[in-house]
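Justification of computing resources. Each target in the renewal requires a structure prediction run like the one illustrated here; the chain below, 352 residues long, is used simply to show the kind of job we budget for.
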Amino acid sequence: MWNRTKITELLKIEYPILLGPMGGGFSTPELLAVVSNAGGLGSLGAYTLTPEEIAEADKIIKTKTNKPYNINLWVNDVDERLVNFPVAKVAEIKTLFKPFFDELSIPMPDLDTNIPSKFLKQVETLFQIKPAVFSFIFGIPSKEILNEARKLGIKTVGAATTMDEALALEEAQVDAIVATGFEAGGHRPSFLKPANESLNGTFALIQQVKAKTKMPIIAAGGIADAKGIRAALTLGADAVQIGTAFMVTDESNATPMHKAKLFSGEAKNTVLSKSLTGRMGRMISNRISNAIGYETEVLPFPLQTRLMGPLRTAAIAQGKSDMYNFWSGQNAVNLKYTSAKELMEALIREMD
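Resulting structure tokens:
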């Protein structure tokens, strides 16, 4: 039975299909509920939310599903180099992006480098709402946080982009590991080495982690259909995590422009760029990612996000799709479902 694995047993779900958390406002309670109600594990990417917003979203989730679900947070949500970051350097980097602001006829934002982490307060709220699963990226929570999750019966799932990161997660005694290949859309959640030195493919990483750990493995990156699920399970994964295929569904909060771009031929041209947020992520290439190469210094995360926020808003309003970032995995060529329910039904039917 393909749907009887270590992960389905651990998380008490019917099918080893997990919704990619898709933080930054892309995931919704509605999308989460569809996946969980169909027997998978729905997820909410909550790293940008305040503790109060997380609690409010959870109230909505609980009205839509009584099945297990996951809340995802970022352990490291503020770059260390943001502390005492020179004001002169902020001004210098802003000039790189000024031509784009000028083209859209909008002013450049004033930026405050004093950005506190939200993670610990978010965790406090998460422990109050008690989701079945607490997944995290960009590091490993403290031993105290992981112990408290165990006491509360919350399963912990960490993301690894390298073998060393998987071993670190195993040593921390998390319950499962997401083996995240560089094919995945969105941020590269590397935490032991820089992201550009941690570029392992999904299927290679699955086999490495399977050979050297005893952990349940969730494969992520480049998986969008039953063929991908079958391949991942064959290589040793116990489940898959799918993001881009769900991002184009009606239940996701991606903009209509974003969804149209993912269905277009341009989705085959993705690039790893830090031009949007200051951290490496996979997106469809655009004028900004082309102009600001990876080697170009940008602002630390999340200050770069705050710089680019008004530009993204104006680009949407003015229909400038070549200046808006579209997160995407490398495998968006055969996307066809705009209903999350129909996508889940198709994945299960084709696997059966």
